[in-house]
Amino acid sequence: MKVNKVHHIAIICSNYQISKTFYVDILGFKPIREVFREERNSYKLDLMVNDVYQLELFSFPNPKKRPSYPEAAGLRHIAFEVDDIAETVSYLQSQSIEVEDIRRDEFTDKRFTFFADPDGLPIEIYEK
């Protein structure tokens, strides 16, 4: 088996409009296409991340809560690389987003921190 790259990351949200605003207006991801799938009563929004990666945002009626704390088995978090972590943290806080204290990776010596999307999905920002 030969894998070329990660094609996309899919996220199910509990409030489509709030999550759409978060990922498009606050994080700045570019909408590619948005469709409403009537048979599922579900929106699907494809977003481009820095013209390289794709994120899919889904809405479904009454999705189950995602267990996060204590850590649950499965996908732990998604991480995005940034040039300047202090500048990014300042921007997120200006958008009323709570951000954890900046830490330093003991193996790479790079700085990183976490914040959450509207449904509590952990998102890491990692300094280049």
Automatic annotation (TrEMBL):
It holds the Pfam family Glyoxalase. The keyword Metal-binding applies. It comes from the Bacteria. The keyword Nucleus does not apply. Residues 5-128 form the VOC domain. Signal peptide: none annotated. One of its GO terms (molecular function) is metal ion binding. Keywords: Metal-binding. Coiled coil: none annotated. This is VOC family protein. It comes from Niallia taxi.
